[in-house]
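Troubleshooting log. The previous run stalled partway through. Resubmitting the same two chains, unchanged.
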Amino acid sequence: MKKSIAVTALCLLALSLVFSACSDSTTSTPAPTLYERVGGTTMITDPSNPSTMIEKGRLTLRSVVDSSILVIAADAQLAKYFPVLFAELGASNTSGLSALSKNFTDFLCSATGSKNTAYSYTGKSMKDAHNPASNSRMGALADSADFDKFVGDIGVGLAQNGVTVSNNKQLVDDLVALLNTTKADIVQR
Amino acid sequence: MRKTLKTLLWSFLVMLCLTVIVLGTHIYLVTRPKPIADIVQLGRIDFKQDIDSLEGNRIRSFVSHLDGVKSTYFNYKDRILVYTYSSKIQSSVNVYNLLAGYGNFKAERYVVGVGATKSGCPIGADKQSYTGTVSSYISGFFK
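Second attempt completed without errors. Output:
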């Protein structure tokens, strides 16, 4: 009799531990990263290259980048930073457009929490990249007004991909906040 | 003696033929026209007249249906049309000429000056980096 009471007590203790463990794990689940919120690591067919697969998060960010590049390129206030993109093909057959799309997408993947090393940003730091002294391709120091315009144009690029303040304010706010974390490094005059 | 001479002559002829074939193949491989790389490029047309959204949509529709054009965007405020296109299929000159033939627009094809190409968004530029310099050197070496 004593033995069965002890076994029952042990079972109840074990059960309570299991439930408390489950309960703890539920409350301590980390919030999804921005990368997960825009699609995460789910593999899907890359629409621009159907023979390859791509993470849904990266595809979303790449689509926003590609749309935003067009918006920025058509922005008279910001076009001064992108003349090389309009240049005719040079000897190396590159205009910089593909590189910009890839690097900017890599940067956003890394910044939003992608763990995929293939998507890591390996370029210069934002400060060095936007300083003519350390990057001769940077024609001039960016000012605050141009940076704000840039962020606004990214917002237009987001809207072209179906994400607006009215349908997903939180996501727009979080992405804008993320871009603004680079402002101190990019705006240098 | 005569047989040896004949053998030598045949050997010489075979070697000559082989040399001509090898040389010819080499010259062809080196000098044949290289295929044009398919690069996605950006084109821009600046309008010198007001364009409303109706007209802008008509222009965008026309340009986006041209062969090789991948995407378009019209900034009505700045009256600027930008588009991406495959350099293998299309050219910015041809897009501009076709658009000029489509409507009597006051517009100019945006052409970048040589000096302006030295500056640009740094996040897309890696030619100043060590690897960029090395790869440019190697590409140039094989041209």
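Takeaways: Residues 2-31 of chain B form the longest helix (30 residues). The two ends of chain B are 51 Å apart (CA to CA).
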